[in-house]
Amino acid sequence: MSHENEMGGNSVEGDFQLAHDKIDQDSSEEEGIPQGVPAHSMVNEDEPYVGMEFESEAAAHAFYNAYATRVGFVIRVSKLSRSRRDGSAIGRALVCNKEGFRLPDKREKIVRQRAETRVGCRAMILVRKVSTGKWVVTKLVKEHTHPLTPGKGRRDCIYEQYPVSYAQLHYISYFPLVC
Questions:
Q1: 169 vs 3 pLDDT, higher one
Q2: What CA–CA distances, in Å, run from 38 to 41, 42, 113, 130?
Q3: Domain map of the chain by residue range?
Q4: What pLDDT digit, counting tens, does each position of 45-95 carry?
């Protein structure tokens, strides 16, 4: 049975599991960093790259969030891989908030149909904890399938939800946005 079938065909889950298995199989490579990783001095520090190291999962998340804001997209946490031995986090997938597609609503009556926000974008970063305790980027996809808005990325709401007039601002003071 293939990993894609085990994961139900979800591309991010399948990619995450495949990258996770690849690191386990390639234990002969030093600390799980794939061959051919660019030298530290030759890479732009503002751009993520495969083999990039972070002191913690939170540092990796903060870096990718800052990168996403600068480039013009919003990230969300997709997958978490835990150790079978002690349950600690050993892998994390951070994806574009437009990754995948929304699941169909199972409720009988939908009062207010929400706008479609997911368009199948595959931009993502996979980080994995190595034996030194550091977190290493094991997979990176930079290409987006939608337009980006550099400098306008938001961490907590979609950009189109900003109020543009005093009337809208007054309205949301009584009915706040839920992000």
A1: 169
A2: 8, 7, 47, 18
A3: 3-102+113-152
A4: 788 999 999 999 999 999 988 888 888 888 888 888 898 999 988 999 999
Q: How does DSSP assign 29-72, residue by residue?
A: SGGGPPTTPPPGGGS-TTS--TT-EESSHHHHHHHHHHHHHHHT
By the 8 A CB rule, do 138 and 32 touch? yes
pLDDT at site 176: 53
DSSP state of 111: S
Cα separation, 74 vs 84, in Å, equals 31
| CB-based contact 82:88 (threshold 8 Å) | yes
Q: Calculate mean pLDDT across residues 124-140.
A: 92
For residue 175, what are its two tokens?
A: 């009915």
